[in-house]
Structures are given as C-alpha cells and as structure tokens.
From TrEMBL:
Protein's membrane topology: Multi-pass membrane protein
An example Gene Ontology biological process: transmembrane transport
Organism taxonomic ancestry: Bacteria, Candidatus Bipolaricaulota, environmental samples
Protein family according to the UniProt entry: Belongs to the binding-protein-dependent transport system permease family. CysTW subfamily.
UniProt-listed InterPro entries: Bact_Polyamine_Transport, MetI-like, MetI-like_sf
Organism per entry: uncultured Acetothermia bacterium
Keyword Membrane attached: yes
Gene Ontology molecular functions: transferase activity
Claim: Transmembrane helix is one of the keywords in the record: yes
Subcellular location(s) per record: Cell membrane
Protein name as annotated: Ornithine carbamoyltransferase
Keywords assigned: Cell membrane, Membrane, Transferase, Transmembrane, Transmembrane helix, Transport
Length: 279
C-alpha cells in the first residue's frame, strides 16, 4: 500500500508542477507583457516598436498625468491618515472594550472586505447624491469631488487597518500593560507609552496597506465623483485613455509605475510587520 501511494505521489508531482506553472503564467504573463510594452518606441500602446524610454519621459512632461498623479497622492495620504487613526481606534475598541453588540459590530466592520467593491461604490454614490448633497445644499454648501473620494477611500480602508492592528493586538503580552497599571500609570499613559509603541509596526503596516489600496482604487473613486466630474486620479486617467482612438504608450508606462509603487509599498509593509514580530 505504501509503495502504491509513493508511486502515485511521484506520478502526480509533474502534473502539480505543470498546474502551478500554468497558474502563475495565467496570473503574471499579462503583467509581464504590460511591463515589456511600456518600453516600446511605438506611438501606440498595443504595438511594439523597439526599445525606448520615451513613454516614461512623457510621464514627466504630461500635465494631465501630473495632475492625476497629484490627486492620487493627495487622496491616498489624507485617507490613509484618517483610516489609520480610525482603524487603530476601532481595533482597540473591539479587542479591549466589551461592546454590547460586538458580534454585529464586527460583521459591519468586515463587510467592506467581504462585499464586492462595486456594491460599496454604488452605495457611496447613492449616499452622496441622495443624502449628503441635498443636506449640504440646504446649508448653502456644494459637494466637491475631492472630499467625497477621500471619504469613500476612508470607508473601505478602515477595515484593512483594523484587521492588521487587531492581529498584532491579540499577540501582545497583557502583563506589560498590567505591570504599568500596577506601577501607578493611568490607562491613558499605558496606551501612549506601552500599547501604542508595541503596536507601531502593525500601525505602519496597516497604513502602508491602506495607502496602496487607495493609490490604485478605481470603482470607489469613480462612483464617489458620480462618474461625471473632471476630477481624475491616475486610475481614472488610465481608464479615460481607453476612449481615445489611439491609446498612447504612456498608459503602459503609468500602469507599470503604479504596479512598481504598489509592490514596493506591500513589500515594505510586510518587512515592517516581520521586524515588529521579531522585536
């Protein structure tokens, strides 16, 4: 029986390797083609015209791309700051406080992670158009796209920050906080001088994750601007390029830059989190 199982394992091994190879090719070959064509000298994004850095040079001189990139960075920075503060506070509340309806609260907190992003985007659109805009109009105020996009990004980023920080919070040694309390520290002092310093790696990781998600988000951004304003982040700018008769090569270069930035931020978040666990 053991020999038969060993023979079956050896027979399945090349099949499993082939399946793994095909899976990775299916996932990453399009990304490789995108990166390759970002170095094309052709005037068209879908045509190879030899190796050139011209598309990347145009990224630095195109005012539309510069504006879209600055909008993306502003939205990502502000939404990340807000989501990090709120997500950390939410993690502390769920893990340390005894909430009356904690089960229901946790379900609501995890919803932005579980539900399709398009559902959340449409919900935000209805909220801004049918609730917030009429409310502000009665006060003589107008609703501009930048605040709505920031609010939308904060809404889905909070949950990701909370998950990362809460996972670290569960692993903390409670005896350190109890010892600080026994030595006369107030709960607020324990939070500032013991809990938050120990949570710093997780908070940084959650912030980097939120920044990455905000930087390349499309659905929430598009619907938060009601789809018709002139406000564009870099993902919206790339989407708008598809409507042109000839797609310029800058689209490939901009997408490659976004890919590289996202990978670096994710790698940095994982590195910070790993060092925090070792510490």
């Amino acid at each position: 029986m053991g020999r038969l199982r060993s023979w079956a394992d050896r027979a399945l091994e090349p099949i499993l390797w082939l399946d793994t190879l095909l899976t990775y090719l299916f996932l990453y070959l399009p990304i490789g083609v995108l990166i390759l064509y970002s170095f094309s000298a052709s005037r068209y994004a879908l045509v190879w015209g030899g190796f050139s850095l011209e598309a990347y040079a145009k990224l630095l001189t195109d005012p539309e791309i510069a504006l879209a990139l600055s909008n993306s960075v502003i939205v990502a920075l502000v939404s990340t700051a807000l989501a990090t503060v709120l997500g950390t506070a939410l993690a502390l509340a769920l893990e340390r406080a005894r909430l009356r309806f904690q089960g229901g609260v946790e379900v609501l907190v995890y919803l932005p992670i579980v539900i399709p992003e398009i559902v959340m985007a449409v919900g935000l659109l209805l909220f801004f158009a049918q609730v917030l805009r009429p409310l502000l109009s009665t006060l003589g105020l107008t609703l501009s796209p930048l605040p709505t996009v920031i609010v939308g990004h904060v809404a889905f980023s909070i949950s990701y920050v909370m998950v990362v920080v809460r996972a670290r919070l569960r692993d903390l040694d409670r005896s350190l906080e109890e010892a600080a309390l026994d030595l006369g520290a107030t709960p607020l002092q324990v939070l500032r001088k013991v809990t938050l310093p120990l949570l710093t790696p997780a908070i940084i990781s959650g912030a980097l994750l939120a920044f990455t998600l905000s930087l390349d988000d499309f659905y929430v951004t598009y619907f938060s601007t009601t789809g018709g304003s002139g406000f564009k982040t870099l993902p919206l700018y790339l989407y708008a390029l598809q409507g042109r008769a000839a797609i310029p090569p800058q689209m490939n270069a901009a997408a490659t830059v976004m890919l590289g930035a996202s990978l670096m931020l994710i790698a940095l978040a994982l590195l910070v989190q790993r060092r925090g666990r070792r510490g």
